[in-house]
Design a protein that fits this description.
The chain is α+β, with helices and mostly antiparallel strands and 164 residues long. It has a domain at 2-115: Aminopeptidase (3-Layer(aba) Sandwich), CATH 3.40.630.30. The protein has five helices and seven strands. A seven-stranded mixed β-sheet has the order 1-2-3-4-5-7-6, sandwiched between helices. The longest helix is centred in the N-terminal third of the chain and has 23 residues, at 10-32. It is globular. The two termini are 27 Å apart. The model has no long low-confidence stretch (mean pLDDT 96). InterPro entries: Acyl_CoA_acyltransferase, GNAT_dom, YpeA/RimI_acetyltransf.
Amino acid sequence: MTEVLPATSKQDFNTIAHLAHIIWTEHYTPIIGEQQVSYMLDTFQSAQAMEDQVKDGYNYYLLQHENTPVGYFSFNQKDTFLFLSKLYVLSSERGKGIGRKAIEFIEDQANKLGKNKIRLTVNKYNSNSIAAYEKIGFVNIDSIVQDIGNGFIMDDYVLERKLD
């Protein structure tokens, strides 16, 4: 059974940071390189960075499968849409419906907040994730390059899914 739990404590954010380190090192090193992964983990995925993001309106959730932490996600509200900032699941736990459960929860939150769309950004070379999002109805609406500091950029597509 998969549970979606709000991240509220220092322990929750430490758990998420640990998951981020595992997931990002494995998944993103071949795409963006070890140096950028390390920078992004320190800058955006540390426990302190996540706690700061919560102060800026982000909501973090821990995904547990059979009482074991296996992933996490984060979103915040924009004017007309919910922005899905992060959604990550351990590679060993993929294919068990955990990501689907997270998306259903996010859709429910968007509806409760009166948002009719969900948007996200995804690295242009992250083909497996792009395919997974397209399979559940997300469409590519834009391409962006963002300077994230320290000489690094994020080269992303913007994907969007309209809700009923």
